[in-house]
Design brief:
Blueprint: H1 3-12, H2 15-68, H3 73-86, E1 90-95, E2 101-104, E3 117-126, E4 132-141, H4 143-178, H5 180-190, H6 211-258, H7 263-294, E5 304-306, H8 307-317, H9 319-324, E6 328-332, E7 336-338, H10 341-358, E8 364-373, E9 376-384, H11 418-428, E10 433-438, E11 441-449
Parallel strand pairs: 6-8
Antiparallel strand pairs: 1-2, 1-4, 3-4, 5-7, 8-9, 9-11, 10-11
Helix pairs in contact: 2-3, 2-4, 6-7, 7-11, 8-10, 10-11
Length: 453
């Protein structure tokens, strides 16, 4: 099937047409049932009328026979002929008790075997005449009423059919007009491309049913635009971060190749290049880790462990740097929770390393561990030093973001992904990053979601 055929197939399934036919069918069925009920009621009324008419005329015929039977059979025949002549809508036949015919009306003016007749029989006791009993059959002509009933049935059927088609057409027009905002939204959507991500959908006439979908689409476009801008910024940051070590590697290598060098000089050059390569490798590994976290990777939780114990292990690893900065560290609180130990230790290492760089020499760092709720644990590292401005605080967990220069005392060896990794590890544990900075005191950390036992 070609794309054109597929589009044609899609267009064949029109919402307005399907709704129109569905409502038309429902209307036809509803009106049909109503008309059927009306016809049944009318039919029963006519049936009762015909029965009453037959009973009245049969009673009259019986009374005539009873009143004339004493004068003989000839008198009965004469009276019946006179009666029949005055009632052309009836047909009467009389039989003696032995089955022989006593009287039959002249050829009737209507079809006695058709559907539009009412037929019935009666008996009259005649002692001493016609074998003691006369049997009679009377047929009543109801053709006019039957024709009227047929006309009523056709009218009701036409009403149901016409009503269904009329309502279906009105629904088709109404739905088609009601879907015009959808067509307008489709036109607006086609106008959005990579160069117009800031464009949003708008309804000329707000509709309660469509507005939530429009709002959700606009919110999605907002997130997409932010992600696109962030991706472009990330690409620029990556290029900027890689440019310096690559330039250093190229410069050192070109210098080493420009003239004869001793083995010691080449060793120094290679050592310098190795440091830059290790920095590049660390940056690439960090970016790969963040990419994995962005794809929805989750932490592998083990048995419950002491978070204070993990913090002590990380502090021992940073002991040399802490001693150089004359910093003391204390741990407040503890919690036993199942976590991915390597990831949590990595996040703590980034936090402590970050606090060590920015803390006031000779001050004290504090690792706060608290469980404010049954399903949440918080780990925060506090240090005294230059505060983070309120405009920069929300961005400290962005990739390659660095705060103001007052806090950047030793950035050379760090590429601005440490806190972004902390935020990623928090999300992998169903938590979130935390940050606050006031009055020369900065607390940076993350929360961990605690799984139910």
């Amino acid at each position: 099937m070609t794309a054109k055929d597929a589009c044609a197939t899609v267009h064949e399934h029109s919402i307005s047409k399907r709704l129109s036919w569905l409502v038309a069918l429902q209307t036809f069925v509803g009106l049909g049932l109503l008309c059927a009920g009306l016809f049944a009621f009318t039919y029963m009324k006519y049936e009762r009328k015909h029965l009453e008419q037959w009973e009245v005329k049969a009673t009259i015929a019986q009374e005539i026979v009873r009143n004339t039977v004493k004068h003989g059979e000839a008198a009965v025949v004469e009276k019946m002929a006179y009666y029949a002549a005055r009632r052309p809508d009836t047909y009467l036949v009389l039989w003696r008790a032995d089955g022989s015919e006593l009287y039959r009306d002249a050829r009737p003016a209507f079809d006695t075997e058709g559907d539009g007749v009412r037929k019935g029989s009666f008996q009259i006791e005649t002692p001493g005449l016609a074998g003691g009993r006369i049997d009679g059959t009377m047929i009543l002509d109801c053709g006019q009423d039957s024709a009227m009933l047929a006309g009523i049935a056709l009218a009701l059927l036409g009403t149901a059919l016409g009503g269904g088609l009329g309502v279906g057409w009105l629904v088709f027009r109404t739905v088609k007009r009601g879907l015009e905002p959808m067509n307008d939204l489709a036109v607006q959507t086609r106008a959005i491309d990579a160069n117009r991500l800031g464009q949003r959908l708008k309804l000329a006439r707000p509709a309660q049913e469509l507005q939530p979908a429009v709002d959700q689409f606009n919110a999605l476009m907002g997130r997409l635009e932010r992600a696109y801008v962030q991706l472009e910024s990330f690409n620029a940051d990556v290029a900027h971060e890689l440019r310096t070590p690559l330039a250093a590697l190229i410069g050192h290598t070109e210098l080493a190749l420009s003239r004869e060098r001793s083995a010691a000089a080449l060793r120094d050059t290679l050592s310098s290049n190795l440091e830059e390569l290790m920095r590049l490798s660390a940056m690439v590994n960090d970016m790969l880790f963040l990419a994995s976290a962005d794809r929805g990777a989750q932490a592998r939780r083990g048995e419950p462990v002491s978070l204070a114990g993990l913090a002590r292990q990380v502090i021992e690893f940073h002991e040399a740097a802490l001693d150089d900065a004359a910093l003391q560290v204390r741990i407040d609180g503890d919690a036993q929770v199942p976590v991915d130990e390597p990831l949590v230790k990595r996040a703590l290492s980034n936090l402590i390393g970050n606090a060590t760089r920015y803390a006031r020499p000779g001050s004290e760092l504090a690792v706060h561990i608290a469980q404010p709720a049954a399903d949440e644990v918080r780990i925060e590292v506090e240090n005294s030093g230059p505060a983070i401005g309120p405009e920069a605080l929300p961005r400290i967990f962005d990739r390659f973001f660095r705060a103001d220069e007052a806090r950047c005392t030793a950035q050379g060896a760090h590429h601005g992904l440490g806190l972004a990794i902390v935020a990623a590890i928090a999300r992998m544990h169903r938590g979130q990053p935390l940050a606050a900075s006031t009055d020369g005191c900065t607390r940076v950390g993350f929360s961990l979601g605690v799984q139910a036992a």
